[in-house]
Amino acid sequence: xxxxxxxxxxxxxxxxxxxxxxxxxxxxxxxxxxxxxxxxxxxxxxxxxxxxxxxxxxxxxxxxxxxxxxxxxxxxxxxxxxxxxxxxxxxxxxxxxxxxxxxxxxxxxxxx
Length: 112
Hints:
mainly alpha
């Protein structure tokens, strides 16, 4: 039930419900790489297909680029927590929304 609520709430964000499903997949299948990547791929395909009806075909094709992250995560992530330094902890929480705000303002200025 909590996952459903989080998916509904995340629709207003950048990744819709897929970020919640990705996080759940990485947690649930953390000990089983094959299941983890199969589930990740399935969620990504659903994401791409769901965009085909609303956007031009090339927009859905751009989403396929997320498959490129699979070898990167597999190679670089060892399953352990990263740095505990406050700067590293808070950088993402500041940078991510800030860069979305900047991109939104640019979109508004360019296409207004």
